[in-house]
Write a structure and sequence with these properties.
The protein has 4 helices and 3 strands, in the order E-E-E-H-H-H-H. It is mostly helical. Helix 1 packs antiparallel against helix 2.
Amino acid sequence: MSKGSKGATKVGAAKSKPAALPQASSISVTPPAKSKAKEVPAASARQSAIILPEGYRPSDDEPFMGPRQKAYFRAKLQSWREEIIKQTRETLEGLHEESTQHADLADRATSETDRALELRARDRQRKLVSKIDAALARLEDGSYGYCEETGEPIGLRRLDARPIATLSVEAQERHERRERIYRED
């Protein structure tokens, strides 16, 4: 497919912002309505341009972590990261705007509680961004999609639902069982 092919997404050549994809279960790489193709940034110059058809979803029929799947997960991770950073900026702007003094103690307490909850949520998001960065680094070094414990492929359905996963379903279950056992002691 060429760069201008209808219903395609080009990954690799020029830098532009990927579409915001807030929920992992509804992720698809689609071009904007006014444009026929969209440029999605590549993580490195050595990567060749990969064209993803509109609505592309990785399947078990293609090579695991082949170029198309890597391009799909890279775009998904990058857009997820950008969405989190955008939300963080909006939260910080909101916190600065809401830093007013309240005459009533109950209003002040409510405001402080809301602020503390928002800051906790942003801290979790900050940790999530670092996990996304680690997943992007694994994409670059070729270890993305493989279980850190067993070396086996994690599975496309799990990666699509949780693109920062580092363990296969079986390894994650073993890990959680061990946590429960040691927590109970």
